[in-house]
Amino acid sequence: MQTQERSNKFEKVNKFNKSVLDKISAYKTYEEFNNNKDCYKYCHHCKSIYNFEESYPGISDFCRMLVRNLHEIKYSKDSKGRCGYLYYWIYENAWKLFGPDWNKIHGKEPIVSLFNVGYNVINELKINECFYNYDTKISFEEWTEKKDLHDYFENYDSIENIIESFKKEGNNKYCEYFTYIKKMYKKYIRKCCRYYDHYNYENKCSDYFKCDRIYYPNEFLCKLRCSSTESVDSSSKIVKNRVSEEQKGSGHLNSEMNTNSLGRAGLLETQESIINELMKDPFYIFSLGGFTLLGIFMFFFLFYKFTPIGSRLNKSSRRKKEKEYNVKKEQRKEIVYSNSENRNINVPKGRVRIAYQSS
C-alpha cells in the first residue's frame, strides 16, 4: 500500500513535466526504462535480490530492469546521455520501493546488494560513464529539482526546435514550466557555476546543470510571450551578477587566476577546439609550412656557421675551391703560352682579349 502511495506521488510530480516534454523522444527514455520487455533474460543477475522481495515487493523487477537497461545502454548511440537518465530513474525507483527507509538501510542489505548488481554489470560491460556516487541522504525535493534541471538541459535543443508548436496549443502550461525552470536556474547557478568572466567558468554540477548562458530559459518565456510577475533578466545580467559575486568573494581576479583556475578538462577541450579550427584554416596551414621550412633553413645555417663541425666543413670547402682555382689558372697560362708559339695563327690587330673565367 505504501509503495503504491509513493508511486502516485511520483506520478503527480512527473505529470507536470510530461505534459510539456512528452513530444521529445529523449524524455521518453524514462518510459523505455520502466517497461518489462526482455527482463526475463537477466534473472540470473538478480539471485541475491530475491530474498528481499517479501519485505520490498517489486525489488526483483527493479533489479531485472536495471540489468536490462544497462545492456541496452551499452549498445546505444548515446550511452553517456542515457546513463544520465538512468541515474535519476534509479533514484525514482529506489524511493518508490524504500521511501522513508532509504536512509535507514543505507550501507546495509538490500540496497547494497541491489547497487552491487548494477556495479558488477557496469564493470562487465565496461560502461564506466554509468558510474555515479549515489547520495542517499538527498531529500525528495532536492532530487526533484535536480532531475527537472537535468531533463531541461538535456532536451534544450529539442525544445528550441519545437517551441513554435507550443504557441498553437496554448501557452499556459508551457509558461508555467519555463517560469519554474527559470526559478530553479537562478537558485542552482549560485551553487553550480563559478564564473571568471562572461565566457570562462567552472561547472561543479555537470551531471544536471549547464553554466553556458545560452541555456537561460528566459528566451523561451519571451518567445511564448509569457506574462510573469518576476523581472525579465537577461542571461548576460545573470552571469554578470555571478561574476561580481565571485570578485567580491575572492577580492580580485587577475589573468593568471583566470587561466589557472579553469577546470583542466575544460581547458583541454578548449585547446583541442582551437587546434581543430586552426587546422581547418588554409592560411594557417600555409603559414605553418612556411615557418617550418624557415626554421629548418635557420637551423642548418646556425649549425654550419657556428659549430666546430660546420667550421671544419667550411675550411675544407675553401681549400677545395682554392685548389680548383689554382688548377684552372695554370691551365689558362699553358693555353696562352701555347698560342703565342704557334706561328701559323694570324693574330688580329688591336688588343688581345682573353676570356677570364672566374672561380
From TrEMBL:
Entry's transmembrane regions: 283-304
Pfam families given in the database record: Plasmodium_Vir
Keywords annotated in UniProt: Membrane, Transmembrane, Transmembrane helix
Domain of life per record: Eukaryota
Protein name: Variable surface protein Vir 12/22/24-like
UniProt source species: Plasmodium vivax (strain Salvador I)
